[in-house]
Design brief:
Strand content: 15-25%
Order of helices and strands: EHEHEEHEHEHHEHEEHEH
CATH superfamily of the largest domain: SPOUT methyltransferase, trefoil knot domain
Number of domains: 2
Number of strands: 10
CATH architecture of the largest domain: 3-Layer(aba) Sandwich
Structural class: alpha/beta
Number of helices: 9
Helix content: 25-40%
Strand order of the largest sheet: 7-6-5-9-8-10
Amino acid sequence: MERNGALIYGVNPVLEALKAGVVIKVFVSANRDDAPGIASLAGKRGVPVERVSPSFFDALPKGHQSVAAKVREKTFAGIEDMLEAAKKNGEPPLLVALDGVEDPRNMGAIMRSALALGAHGIIIGKHRQAGLTPEAYKASAGAAWSLPVSQESNIKYALDQLKEEGLFIAGTSSAEGIAPWDADLTAPLVLVLGGEGAGLRRVVAERCDYLLSIPMRGVGSLNVSVSAGIFLSEILRQRSSNQL
């Protein structure tokens, strides 16, 4: 969980955090013009804006755009909350579980795809897993504030719990598995994505009801966040067609 007062950076991440109502304070470099809409939105939300020396941003990664914000911690959700949200919406649950995704930029991109394509939440582990870092917030382009996130001490036990709740577990593989368009993805589902390079751990793959794989031409594998978007798009396509 992010500690109270964590910094995020970049114009769009700060704007999205302001819209979500989680910003404590905004910092803008004294040598730049006002970032589009930030001061105005901060004023409407009662959030102070401080002009700071350009050196304030020296410790931040490239891409800060001389804008940063101190934000409140994001509260993790429970898996049961995600299932209840799906039930209230009259939709079959769709959760995304990450097994060892260590690059926060991949995590943020997956969160953005998950929110855009109908997932009810994302499950991450406490170990061998990217956390909700400033890089993840930036890559999510605002999705991190809206998508429920559950952090579980043991992913495989969380999957066991979800099986008991009636969800199917669909693992992903770079080579072994069926094409997503050849599988029925309309049922209550957990899409499990493995880490960069290593993929799913054996103990996690063994808990999957089946494995999905994207047929490839010309390259051996795709970035995990790209793969996530393809799988989630096919799930949304099938579920949308099923409602016609």
